[in-house]
Design brief:
It comes from Bacillus thermotolerans (Quasibacillus thermotolerans). Pfam families: HEPPP_synt_1. This is Heptaprenyl diphosphate synthase component I. The protein has about 270 residues and is mainly alpha-helical. The chain has 2 domains: about 110 residues, no CATH class; about 130 residues, no CATH class. Helices cover about 75% and strands about 0% of the residues. The chain has 12 helices and no strands. The radius of gyration is 19 Å and the shape is globular. About 35% of the residues are buried. The C terminus is likely disordered.
Length: about 270
C-alpha cells in the first residue's frame, strides 16, 4: 500500500505540473485536485500497473477534464455581464480541457478520448437540465446529479473493462456531492440542488421552500446519502473484494461519511 500511495503522490504532482499557469493563478482560485477522485481513478490498479505511462496519462487526463468541468461550473453569471475573474475562470476551464486533449493525444489512446468525450457530453446535458430546472421529479434531479458526479469515472473504467469497481466509486462520489449540497442548503448558501427541487410543481413553485419543505429537502438528501452509505458498507464487508481495494474503500468511506459535517447536520 505504501508503494501505491507513492504512486498517488507522483500522479498528483503530474496533475499539478499540468495545471501550473502563473498568470491564471494571479486572478482565479487555484484549481483543486480532489483526492478522492484521484484515488478512485487509481483504485483498480496495482502499484506495478500504475508504473505504465499509458495508465498514468489516462489517469492524469481524466483528472484534468474533471477539473475543467468543475472550473466551468464555478462560473455563475446572473446577467449578460461577466466579471473579469469569471471570464478568466471560463478560459481556465477551456485551458484545462485543452490539456486533457493534448495529454491523451500524445498517447494515441483513441478509445479513452472517445469515452471521455462522451462523458463530457452527458455531464453537460445533465448540468443544463439541472441549472435550467428542466426536471419534473426528485428522482430525475438526482439522476442528473449522479451523472454529473460519476460519468467521467464510468467511462474511464469502461475503457479498461473495470466496470465492477464503478458501483462503490459512484456511491462515494454522488454522496459527496449530496453532502455538499445539503451543507450549502442548511447554511443558507446557494444550492443548485435545492433550487431544482424547489422549482418542481409538486413543491408549489414557491420562491423559497417552506419550513416543512426545508425539512423535506434535508430528508431527501439524507435518504440518498444513507442509501449510498449502505452500499459502500456492503462492499467493505464483501470478502471477495481484494484486501487492498477494501482498504481503499474504507479510506474513502471514512473521508465521505465520517466527516463531522455529515452527522452534525443529519
Amino acid at each position: 500500500m505504501n508503494e501505491w500511495l507513492k504512486q498517488k503522490e507522483m500522479l498528483e504532482q503530474k496533475v499539478r505540473q499540468k495545471l501550473s499557469y502563473p498568470y491564471l493563478h494571479k486572478y482565479i482560485e487555484k484549481p483543486e485536485i480532489e483526492e478522492s477522485r484521484l484515488l478512485i481513478l487509481m483504485m483498480p490498479f496495482t502499484a506495478e500497473q500504475l508504473l505504465s505511462d499509458d495508465i498514468q496519462n489516462c489517469i492524469v487526463s481524466a483528472a484534468l477534464i474533471q477539473i475543467a468541468l468543475d472550473t466551468h461550473e464555478r462560473v455563475i453569471a446572473s446577467s449578460d455581464y461577466i466579471a473579469k475573474d469569471q471570464q478568466l475562470t471560463v478560459l481556465a476551464g477551456d485551458y484545462f480541457s485543452g490539456l486533457y486533449y493534448r495529454t491523451l493525444a500524445e498517447t494515441g489512446n483513441i478509445d479513452m478520448i472517445r469515452s471521455l468525450s462522451a462523458a463530457v457530453k452527458s455531464i453537460n446535458e445533465s448540468k443544463i437540465a439541472l441549472y435550467h430546472q428542466e426536471h419534473n421529479s426528485v428522482s430525475s434531479i438526482m439522476e442528473s446529479v449522479y451523472k454529473i458526479e460519476t460519468e467521467i469515472i464510468k467511462q474511464f473504467y469502461s475503457v479498461f473493462d473495470l466496470q465492477s469497481f464503478f458501483p462503490v466509486a459512484s456511491h462515494v462520489l454522488s454522496a459527496k456531492r449530496l453532502i455538499e449540497e445539503k451543507h450549502l442548503f442548511v447554511t443558507g448558501e446557494k444550492s443548485v440542488l435545492a433550487e431544482a427541487v424547489d422549482s418542481l410543481e409538486a413543491w408549489g413553485n414557491n420562491p423559497s421552500l417552506s419550513v416543512d419543505g426545508q425539512h423535506e429537502m434535508i430528508s431527501i438528501c439524507d435518504q440518498y446519502i444513507n442509501h449510498a452509505k449502505a452500499e459502500v458498507e456492503q462492499a467493505l464487508h464483501d470478502r471477495s473484494v481484494a484486501g487492498s481495494v477494501r482498504e481503499l474503500c474504507s479510506l474513502l468511506y471514512n473521508e465521505t461519511f465520517r466527516n463531522k459535517t455529515y452527522p452534525e447536520e443529519g
